[in-house]
Amino acid sequence: MPKTTAACLIIGDEVLNGKIQDANSPFFAKYCYNLGIELKEIVTVGDEEEQIINSIKRLSKKYDFIATTGGIGPTHDDITYECIAKAFGLDCILDEECKARMQIKSNPEARLDSEALKDYYRMATLPTGSNVKSYYLVDDLWVPICSINNNIFIFPGIPQLFQKLLDSFVDVIKDIYNIKDQSHEYMRYFVKTTLSESQISQYLRNLQTEASCVSDEIKIGSYPHFGLGFNTVSIFGTKDNSEYLNKIKIRTIEKLNGEELSAEYEEQISNRI
């Protein structure tokens, strides 16, 4: 089976102007990694119609699984649903199922005036058409995962909601993209070495050339850890090449006078401030 490819479209001026830090794309990257999906692009755009439309059209032509996050609230700058619908010639209408779920969960009519209620229900005004489907997979949430062409999946930008909905979506994604063969799932080794990047660069260059002849999925990387006195080599590939990956890990440890690091420790030191 061909590898499923993915992209993530982050939507929001607040990310571009530094008001908030994007937490969704790192989560999505790990999500794809765990499913054996090849994440190819992460794109961030502002709350601008032309940017959103052009970006989603381009990504949908290139990749299988596109997740969008952000821009589906009640305010004037929340235009994701309208823009994505417009990109594919669809209308947006008030979704009665979504409205009913909102009424059950938060009883908006009892607490909002008519103008605020109109804005509130903008969040239930979804793209509509034969190629559109809304998934309600979390009982305590009214917000759906709105899908177009089983290709674009629209998520809220709030990290807790984005992550909860994605976690609920694993089995659906596996079914849509026929992800059954675990041999295509990813695996990775980390090797610590006190040699500098300049000292190891030729070895890694030759190793990448060799590994590419085995599989173009195998990627060799190096990552400096300033102030810690060592660098990390990453050996990345799919489980169907596990024997070869283990072999070059052992060879790298020997060649670079290194030692293996756990993924947990590597993540900890990579994300330190």
TrEMBL record:
- This protein's source sits in the domain of life called Eukaryota
Domain (MoaB/Mog) spans 7-176
GO biological process terms on file: flavin-containing compound metabolic process
GO terms assigned for molecular function: FAD diphosphatase activity
Q: Which InterPro entries has this protein been placed in?
A: MoaB/Mog-like_dom_sf, MoaB/Mog_dom
What's the name of the protein?
A: MoaB/Mog domain-containing protein
Q: What is the lineage of its organism?
A: Eukaryota, Fungi, Dikarya, Ascomycota, Saccharomycotina
